[in-house]
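Reopening this one. Same input as before:
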Amino acid sequence: MATEYKPKKIVLAYSGGLDTSVILPWLKERYPGVKLVAFAAELGQGSELKGIEEKAYKSGADEVVVMDLRREFAEQYCFPMLRAHAVYEQDYLLGTSIARPLIAAKQVEVARQTQADAVGHGATGKGNDQVRFELTYMSLAPDLKIIAPWKDPSFELRDRESAIEYAEKHGISIPVSKKKIYSQDRNLWHISHEGAEIEHTDSEPNWEACLTITSPLNKTPDESEIVEIGFENGNPVSVNGQKMPGDALISTLNDIGGKHGVGVALLVENRLVGMKSRGVYETPGGTILYEAHKSLEQICIERDTLHYKQQVALQYAKMVYNGQWFHPLREALQAFVDHTNATVTGSVKVRLFKGRAMAIAATSPHTLYDDKLASFSMEGYDVTSARGFIDLFGLPMKVAQQAKRW
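Same output, byte for byte:
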């Protein structure tokens, strides 16, 4: 019989939320003498990280590492995904999915710096995050052991209610209660909400209770607002003519878009692990950027290339959702995406009104849009070429139809 592995030092992905807050003391009980490093990534959670070091120490951490990763998150993760124009199942802009590989990669860095022999996370055995964390660990540090308490047979906390009771018993402050039981994940790109009434597909979510960075439509302005986004090589670089780093740019658009109720999605998605789940996602800034980027690609990328890129976007989105950020195929797809976006430079105006973001104007020094060709005028266009083109293009259809009569 194999001897159970007993880690000496674990770097735990720590958010200060319910799950990881109860896991810290539980790990101390599970592995007597183990050293715990609580790793917290600042990805734009707002006030959620306030006092997180003190909280982690009180919960059982021996060391606490907090990294501000907002700019890296925006420019090295969100923007490459934006260039790909990746959307999972038509609606999800992958806010949680895209953050997990970065957190896990930095965990590995901290593990090396602190001589830890294991990394851990608080994702449950029913969700996607367990896969995203663990695939990244496996890709970057296959020698490190993975500690996943929710999959440990001795882990007795099998639902959020029991976790709350455990936290209360151990004097751990948590940002939820049995009355407000949403599971939320927030970062610079979005905030997600699951649980409570959202889980019931036969009813509408309580928007007043769950919306956090986006105004309900009945509280949005009665006049529209136009925002102008500048792009260079597919990357957003300015808002209304003001250049800014990626994290500031997303934050600025979150404020503007949130005010107008932009970027709220309610969907039932297919989880990687098999079941369907229903969630509310708020992605105001990201929604504006996707709309603007789409408009600029439409005038800057040649037709066949654009159509093929749309197919690539589906595969890219699935890989991000599935936690395969460091997969060789995702990296190869990124090379294709970045090649296509080399000319996606210019500016786009987007009108915001009552939850809608609509690109209304786009300009680029690399535009392929020809006003004369697009007009109703026949100047510069040989209309006689169309007859032969249609005859040849439609020939397979014609032959197939004739064959039905034989």
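So the earlier flakiness isn't reproducible anymore. For the record, The longest strand covers residues 35-42.
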